[in-house]
Design goal:
The protein is mainly alpha-helical. It folds into two domains: 148 residues, no CATH class; 74 residues. It has ten helices and no strands. α3 runs antiparallel to α7. The termini are far apart.
């Protein structure tokens, strides 16, 4: 019994230490990148070089909803304990927890508690010890994700209202999310396989979980949604170009008309 408690304490301390180091190193790297003048002034990192401003607003909307979806996937894995893709989910859990730790203020007691709940004890133990003894702490980690699900949904709503954007993307997200959960129940597959199957079906490829390995399935997801995003960006860019060309032509006609009137006078 004493050995079990000692081992548990050791795993807890190691998990906290690893997470603290990862957060510190990540924050140091991000600050270095942000303070780099060459990167700040680089056209390569300027989104306006790739997308019209309207599309950037839409991508911001999509970002909030994608984060909600990622939180839900991680919660499902933590709660039900699927084996398929568990290593990838553990890595993703750690990375997302680090990102959320950046965004969490520790000025209040609530912030400090939330920061503690963000520590992915089970994921770190799984990667360092194979299968640790602190998996029971997943329940507290799940509470943190449930909290951030509603936080990021509120951010989506506020951003949409502040910029006067449409909420059609929310309908798309709802369709994908319901299909994702329905596929898990009906097909009896893991969330990763379900996401791949729904993505392939949504982009009119197939209804199979393309790829036998985790990397193959992730590649299938990237290709499916990357192609969908690029086609949407291409359509939006073309539409904006046509409208601008038409408007510029009308302005030129008006300018010529005004000059002609002045010459007549």
């Amino acid at each position: 019994m004493d050995n079990w408690v000692l081992l548990l304490i050791i795993q807890l301390l190691i998990a906290v230490g690893i997470f603290a180091v990862l957060v510190y190193v990540s924050k140091f790297i991000v600050n270095k990148i942000k303070s780099s003048s060459s990167l700040k002034n680089s056209r390569f990192y300027n989104l306006l070089e790739y997308f019209p401003i309207e599309k950037i607003y839409s991508l911001k909307q999509i970002f909030y909803l994608v984060m909600v979806c990622v939180f839900i996937v991680i919660v499902l894995y933590l709660f039900f304990g699927w084996d398929d893709g568990v290593i990838f989910i553990s890595v993703l859990d750690i990375l997302i927890s680090i990102y959320l730790a950046f965004k969490t203020s520790t000025d209040s007691l609530k912030g400090k508690v939330m920061l503690f709940l963000l520590i992915p004890f089970a994921s770190i133990a799984r990667l360092t010890f194979g299968e640790g003894m602190i998996v029971f702490l997943d329940i507290f980690h799940i509470f943190a994700y449930l909290y951030f699900i509603q936080v990021y949904y509120r951010k989506f709503v506020n951003f949409t209202q502040n910029y006067g954007l449409g909420i059609t993307i929310l309908l798309l997200f709802a369709i994908v999310l319901v299909s994702f959960l329905f596929t898990i129940l009906v097909e009896g597959v893991s969330p990763l396989d379900s996401m791949v199957m729904v993505s392939n079906a949504f982009t009119s490829n197939s209804f199979d979980a393309s790829g036998n390995s985790i990397v193959g399935k992730l590649d299938s997801l990237v290709l499916a949604w990357g192609g969908f995003l690029l086609s949407a960006v291409g359509t939006a860019t073309l539409a904006v170009s046509i409208i601008r060309s038409r408007v510029d032509h009308k302005f030129d006609e008006m300018e010529d008309l005004i000059k002609a009137k002045k010459n007549e006078e």
